Amino acid sequence: MQNIENKGRRAFMGSAAMAALLLGNRTAWALDQGSGGRWPKVLPPQSPRISHVIDQLGRQRDDAYSWMKFIPATGERTRDNLPEAVGAMLKAENDYTDAILAPLAGERAKLLDAMLARASGDTAAPALEKDGWDYGSARPAGAAHAIYTRKRKAGKSEQLIDEAARAKGQPYFRSTGHQPSPDHRYFAWAEDVIGNDRHRIVIRDNQSGEIRTIVDKDAYGYGGLVFAPSSRWLFWIWRDARNRPTRLYRTSVDGKVTDLVYEEKDPAIFMQVKRTAADGFIALTLAGPETAEVRLVSATDETAAPAIVWPRKTGVLYEIDEWNGGLIALTDAGDAFDMALLRLDPKSFRTLATLVPHRAGTPILQILPFKQALVRLERIDGLHRLVILRPDGSERTVAFDDPAYAIELPGEQSYGASSVMIVHQSPKSPRRWIRIDLVSGKQDVVQQQAVASFDPGDYEVERLFAPAPDGEMVPITLLSRRGARKDGKAPLLQYGYGSYGVPSDPEFSIPALALVDRGWRYAIAHVRGGSEKGRRWFLGGRKFNKRNSFTDFIACAEHLAAEGYTAKGKVVAYGLSAGGLLVGASMNIAPTLWGGVIAQVPFVDMLNTMSDGAHPLVPLFRPDWGDPLADPKAYDYIASISPYENVRAAAYPPLLCTAGLKDDRVAYWEPAKLVAEVRRRSTSGSPALLMTDMDSGHQGSADLASEYRQKALFWAFAMRCV
Which tens digits make up the pLDDT trace of 374-432? Predict the structure, then answer.
């Protein structure tokens, strides 16, 4: 075999393979007996295999579906600029998926109705108080988008944004970064109307009511915009053509002046910007997986060049805020791998004292300073707890008795507030907003998520532990109907993520209830690669330890089956993004364990993606996965675990993959290649499906109905699988 020449590839990308790609439009033959007659008799698309041999580090591989990859010169994929072959392939796959899933329409509708009915009384978060103003948002009954408002105490409510009006006529809409200026004259936010996470920035003048766009494109909305303490400027982050946040700009609130503040040259560094708690500084955080650097702009000179707190050093992470008249640093410096909290001199940045020492196995997750106390969120024995540290050094701890629960610590709380607002939830307990007095510790439930036709007593939450092959005990959060028998008859959906140190917290989910109400169990597998047990747990599923994530996930399913909660072949695996890698690899290792697999925008073409130095995330995530361009060990390890590279002749379960055409994080061709290869190699006759949203990126549009429609589809597919 030899590399396909560019000329030949261009010819193929035109029209040579159209007939083969469009076969999926015909009904033709019954699927293999192994499918049990569950699925319609529809011939799937047959994507051509075009030899594309890659020589790399003395190794050779043939990526026969590489032709599916398309990156336009503009960097922005649309329906209109796709090569003919790629467009035909995606259409054929969508048509085939629609045909296979057509019999599920009734069940999908029932599931969606159940979710929407439960959410009909959904309650928005209570308003946050700032300097006498209450800022809040709510989604009107039956509406897809929220309305943002503000009001003075006992005053009339003032509408800031009607997102339904902003979304009208747009194929996609998602907003983020909503915030008032410190003087409350302005209200700013970022919005994506394309679906590729490239935002425009909008400001409302609250005096005149005028709304103007001050950045029309290419802004980074997720932690990428903040007002200056003076309210005269908006600091914002720009994304380059490869979607990397690389520049910090300062734009006047009237949009007339824009200055470059800082440009980052290292492609392995991402950026975030914020205002410190007491409005003393603008803090630009430059961070990668194993390094960080914070640059501060003082409120006393907002146009000055940012000052470096600590120069970046490999192996040292930190973030900066201010409290009690000085700066504080949350850092892993000095082998404090689960983080320590230090006090710094605000001028020299030298360490003055240790506020909270490092405690192995008790990671500090977040800090939120107030004038009266420093609040931190940490995890012990895998469960959240809140600790209130007062200036005199005394502490108060807040925890809950639930077997599994999650605490959120919302940001944007007023530094001068006398209480902290937290959110508590569990798989059977809707979100509760609780105000905790910073001095007395008194708790008041301010608001609770309204869930129609719901009694928490109808459900049971258990915290279980599955023995991994190496002896580690892997936590499982399990939701069941109360009284459900452990007779091995119940089907079960098992969710997992296990990457980047991101935990899978046991949160309340209306879609999960809808599934459990139909006799299912819902499990969250807290596998290594997350941080549920601290940084050690993260490192145990990272890089050359990544296989542990997959064997943990398999161990959880096997344990649940052995204990009678379900049975082998009745477990449907579900993963999102890097969680798609988890379920894809677990499917390859143990294909007959699973009744079905759902992989949402899955990262499944590891070797080819990590070999693409131009990919916006590759330089950033090399410490997490390894560098197959430079390290033979990394090449071999990734090649041994990548889902696409390791599909084999086996009885694969039904597989449903989703993709977003505009996704720059996990491109559509990753699941497309996996589906094509599973379809080619599987001996079961079970369908392998690809569903591509032609208008979205890594995330769907930000409306509840869209989210629930997708979950209804997933659940209906799962129910048909078993």
Answer: 999 999 988 999 999 999 999 999 989 899 999 999 988 999 999 999 999 999 999 99
Chain CA centroid to CA 468, Å: 26
pLDDT value at residue 32 = 39
User: At a CB cut-off of 8 Å and minimum separation 6, what does 652 contact?
Assistant: 587, 591, 678, 681, 682, 683, 684, 686, 688
Q: Does any domain span residue 413?
A: yes
Token reading at 87: 């467009």
395/494 same-domain check: no
Side chain identity, residue 468: A
User: Token pair for residue 566?
Assistant: 């379900």
- Give residues with Cβ within 8 angstroms of 310, minimum separation 6: 293, 294, 316, 318, 329, 349
Residues 204 and 347 occupy one common structural domain: no
pTM score: 0.90
Q: Are residues 440 and 575 in the same domain?
A: no
Residue 461 pairs with which residues in a beta bridge? 479
Number of structural domains found in the chain: 4
Query: Tokens representing 286?
Result: 């430059």
pLDDT exceeds 50 at position 3 = no
Q: Is 19 exposed, middle or buried (0-12, 13-18, 19+ CB in 10 A)?
A: exposed
Residue 682 DSSP one-character state: B
With 70 as the cut, is the pLDDT of residue 13 above it?
no
d(CA 328, CA 404): 31
- In the chain, % helix, strand, coil (3-state, to 5) comes to 25, 35, 45
Q: Can you point out the beta strands (E) in 399-457?
A: 406-408, 419-426, 429-437, 443-448
> Cα(580)–Cα(54) distance, rounded to whole angstroms?
25
First to last CA, the chain: 41
Q: For 709, which DSSP code?
A: H
